[in-house]
Amino acid sequence: MFVSDQQLLSNMATRWGICSAGKISHDFAVALKTLPAEDHQVVAIAARKLEDAEEFARKQSISKAYGSYEELARDPNVDVVYVGNIHPYHLKACLLFMNAKKNVLCEKPLAINTKEVKEILDSTKRNQVFFMEAVWTRFFPVSVEVRKMLAQGEIGEVKMVRSEFGVPVLHNRRVVEKELGGGALLNIGMYCLQFVCMVYNGERPESIQASGVCLDTGVDETVIVTLKFSEKRMAVFTYSSSIQLPNDAIIVGTKGTIQIPARMWCPTSLIVNGKETQYPLPEPHFPLNFLNTTGMRYEAEEVRQCLIKGLKESPVMSHSDSLLLAELEDEIRRQVGVVYSQDCQ
Question: In angstroms, rounded to a whole number, what is the distance separating the alpha carbons of residues 84 and 86?
Fold first, then answer.
C-alpha cells in the first residue's frame, strides 16, 4: 500500500533543534512540552558555548548539546530549527540552517531591516525549505477567533484599529543598545504593527505617519504611529520602552467592537460587543522567563501542520506578511530617525 510523505510525517514527531540557549529558547522548549510528545520533540540544543548548551540540555532533558550552530545545522535528526538568538544575528543563523536544508522558525523581529528580510526569504526559496517568522501572537486562540469574526463580518466593516504596548524595560541593554538591535519598535511596537496588518489582512496602508522620541543611544523610546488605509479606514498605535501603557487593542466596526484586554501581545481573553470570553493557556512544567509563553505552543503546532501539508510558508504568517512588516518598520524608523549600522551596508 502506498503511504504518502504527508501520512509519514503525521505519524512521526516533528524533531526540533534549538539555536541559542537564552531565555526565550528556554520558554519555547517549555511550551513544546505542553504538546503531545508523539507530535513534538526537542532533539538538540546549540549555543555559542558548549557548557551553556549542556546546562540547557540537562534542565530540559534534551539528548544532544552542541557548542556551535554549525554542528546543529549538520545534525541529520533535526527537522526544523527554532532560531532564538537576538535579531542582529538572525540573518546569519537563518542562512546557515537554510543552506543546510533545514526548515526554520525564526524569532521576531525577523531581521534588522527589509534588506536582511529579503535575503532570508530569497534563501528559503532557493533552498526549498519551510520558513516562518515566529510572530507567536497570530496563533493564539484569541487571534484565530478575531480573524474568524472579521471574515464573517461580525462587527461589520472595520473602520478603526487602535493598539498600545508600553512597558518600562530601559534596564534591559538589548532594548537600549543600538548594536544589540535596540529600540522599542523592533522589540515591542512590532506587536501593535503586526496586529494592525492582521486585521487589515496584509493590506499596505496608503500613508503612515510616525512621531516619537529617541534615547541618547539613538534608538526609539516612545512613538505614536497613524496609518491610513483605503476606503477611509484608519489605525493608530502607541508603543514605549519607558512607560506602562494599558496594553490593550480594539477593533471598531460599523456594527460593533472587538476588544483584546491588557497583554494584547499574548492574549487570553476577548470582549466582543461587551461580552467577554476567556481562552486560558496550559500551565508550564518549569518557571517561565516571560509572560504567557506556553502560548508559543500554537506557532509550533502551526509549523508541524505546514510541514505535514508540504507547505513552505504559513498562510497565517506568510513570507509577504514578514516583508510588509519589515518595510513598514523601516519607514517608521526613518521618520523617527533611527539608523542601524546594517542600514548603511
Answer: 7
